[in-house]
Amino acid sequence: MTIEEFEKELQHGASDSKVHVEEEKKNMFRVKRHDSNGLVLGNSYAGTVRVYIDERLIFSLVPPRKDGINCWYVDFEGDITAVTANGLHVYIGMLKVANKFMKEHEDEEIKR
Predict the structure, then answer these.
(1) pLDDT band at residue 60 under the 50/70/90 scheme
(2) What DSSP character marks residue 25?
């Protein structure tokens, strides 16, 4: 599944909201959050896929890395910290699509 196909599938499930997906092209630092203590930076790895709804980060999919984490995983640090009862089915649907995306990419890695 390509990034474009992933975004299209996510958008299909969240028809009332604008879904946007970005893929990180290189390793870098990003602002994870900012609060009264200032900015908190965190590593951002090449290949990380970020999922946004209406400009708010929902979750990120992080690919295997050479520093010990050898599988795809979901990073739930985002701008959304609560989901309403009406939105929960959309969120769960998005996670199901994310799981499918990660499994396909893991299967591709195994074949290499």
Answers:
(1) very high
(2) -
